[in-house]
Design a protein that fits this description.
With 194 residues, this protein is α+β, with helices and mostly antiparallel strands. It folds into two domains: 42 residues, no CATH class; 143 residues. An eight-stranded antiparallel β-sheet has the order 1-2-3-4-10-9-6-5.
Length: 194
């Protein structure tokens, strides 16, 4: 009798239980193995980073923007355009092994920078073509990526709320912007980051 492999939803549930117990590295490993063994590739923008419950937008430490610039191994730009009186409210830096950076803004805008060192470039076409997802090809200042309007995405046959997003890679750093705005506005934010 063949054992049934857990769904992505089951993998996330197992991950949450293990993280609550405080075993984040083991949880990340197990979740990755469960997703790989199920034959399903993780959906990068939806399952972007492992986040312990009740903590920041990425696994890491809350800091200042000035300190973050000295802690991450890459340069980053802040957007010169933000809608509706949006302001920076929090800055998070990942642990030394990861060094991702999250900029949290009012109005539910989140920008995550993730160094791609040793990782393959995202296959935008493969992600876009996954059933039930509503991503489309985009370009940010001439660089290819993908994006989606805010709304609902289908994950394992269940419709889930999804903020709009724009995702692209420049100079070895993946940048993802999330927010409850139409793709056109998120692209405007992205293109203002240079």
């Amino acid at each position: 009798m063949k054992a049934k492999m857990p769904s992505r939803r089951g993998a996330i549930g197992a991950l949450m239980v293990v993280m609550i117990l405080g075993v984040v590295p083991v949880a990340a490993f197990l979740a990755t193995r469960m997703l790989q063994s199920s034959g399903t590739q993780p959906i990068r923008p939806i399952l972007h980073r492992v986040v312990p419950p009740g903590e920041g937008p990425i696994l890491g430490t809350k800091t200042t923007l000035e300190e973050a610039r000295s802690l991450v191994p890459f340069s980053f730009a802040e957007p010169s355009f933000l809608p509706d009186d949006t302001r920076l409210t929090e800055v998070w830096v990942g642990p030394a092994a990861d060094r991702s950076l999250a900029l949290v803004y009012s109005n539910d805008i989140l920008i995550i920078f993730h160094p791609m060192e040793g990782e393959a470039m995202p296959d935008w076409e493969a992600i876009i073509n996954q059933p039930g997802l509503h991503f489309q090809k985009i370009t940010v200042n001439g660089v290819p990526g993908m994006g989606a309007d805010a709304g609902v995405q289908e994950i394992d046959g269940v419709e889930e709320p999804y903020p709009g997003s724009v995702d692209w890679v420049t100079n070895g750093v993946e940048t993802t912007i999330y927010g409850p705005y139409p793709l056109k506005i998120l692209l405007h934010i992205a293109e203002s980051m240079h």
